[in-house]
Amino acid sequence: MLTLLSSLFHLLFFTLTLQCHIASSAILYSLKHHHSNIHHQRPMIHANQTNCALFVGTWIPDDTYPFYQSLNCPMIDPQFNCKLFGRPDTNYLKYRWRPLNCELPRFNGVQFLMGLKGKSIMFVGDSLGRNQWESLICMIYTAVPQSQTQLVRGEILSTFRFLDYGVTLSYHKAPYLVEIDVAQGKRVLKLEEVDGNGDAWREADILSFNSGHWWTHQGSLKGWDYIELGGKYYQDMDRLEAMERGLKTWANWVDTNIDQRKTKVFFLGISPTHTNPNEWIYGSTTATSKNCYGETAPISGTGTSYPGIYPEQMKVVDMVIREMRNPVYLLDITMLSAFRKDAHPSVYSGDLSPQQRANPIYSDCSHWCLPGLPDTWNELFYTTLFY
């Protein structure tokens, strides 16, 4: 049954009757019914104008990688700096993504800067967006190490400038893309509001969005106390339905506020996690490890079918983008990243003590080492921008 919230919270939201639901209302039922119709077993293939299936292919060894070394890129967060924090193996750095029917052009940092002279790029989303942002900075920086630069880090907005070229790369933290407000110590996730966040996005020449992981967090990692939808407040609801409503709000904002004839807009596909070894250990009833801990090689096979369970969040992303009046470009890195169980920080993260590093339970199997897999995301980003 519905329970009446405290009088203090009642006054905060004026005369609204705030009720805590486990979502079972008619509107959420209709969302669930609609969502059930969009499931597909394999991801859709998105290709650029050259008709190359960029996101379907295979990983091949290549000793010319990586593009940079972590010691030569001081912008890498400790969370991603695996080499600095003791990762002993290096083979995970020496793989190149080869699409099925083409070769990716080699990333050229100088060409990137010259082609975008005077322009601004903003990555918007969660820490996977920050992972990609820092990767791109390092890939460019290694090409122009003598260039004048400026880094300003903030809690919400961080900016790196290549001053000699007038190129700005920013990261805006907005893990849900929609608004989350704090009132009287309570965090309210507003599934139908973007505008406060959007004020920071309007002036960028290139926008790259991502969202996904924070929608599924449970317990102490959950990012809200209440969800606001349709004038009502919920303590929780089906996470995929909440994500769908939030992304539809974001999509409508982009359709309404961004002129894609002037501003290029991307959405980064869901970055897969590797927390369940049973997804890649075939023919065995039990896995010998608990997660990505100790993994030093990609999953074998070619990237033409998804290894493991295709992320439900990606089905939501695909559906929402397809329903936009002017769909953004989906940088569909989900499947190619799913093969890279070897590329996570695991226990080689700056946040861990020596004792924690000796325990697989502390493995980070969500983010990615730098240098590493996000460099490939940026090779694909570069290809779609210039070819």
TrEMBL record:
Signal sequence, renumbered to the chain: 1-19
Query: Topology versus the membrane, per the UniProt entry?
Result: Single-pass membrane protein
Tell me which GO cellular component terms the UniProt record holds. Golgi apparatus; membrane
Molecular function terms, GO-annotated = O-acetyltransferase activity
Is this entry keyworded Transmembrane? yes
- Domain Trichome birefringence-like C-terminal span(s) in chain numbering: 104-383
Judging by the UniProt lineage, the source's domain of life is Eukaryota
Boundaries of every Trichome birefringence-like N-terminal domain copy: 51-103
Q: Where in the cell is it found?
A: Membrane
Which keywords fit this entry according to its UniProt record? Membrane, Signal, Signal-anchor, Transmembrane, Transmembrane helix
Matches recorded under PANTHER family? PMR5_CAS1P GDSL_SGNH-LIKE ACYL-ESTERASE FAMILY PROTEIN, PROTEIN TRICHOME BIREFRINGENCE-LIKE 9-RELATED
Q: Which family does it belong to?
A: Belongs to the PC-esterase family. TBL subfamily.
**Name the UniProt record assigns to this protein:** Trichome birefringence-like N-terminal domain-containing protein
What is this organism's lineage?
Answer: Eukaryota, Viridiplantae, Streptophyta, Embryophyta, Tracheophyta
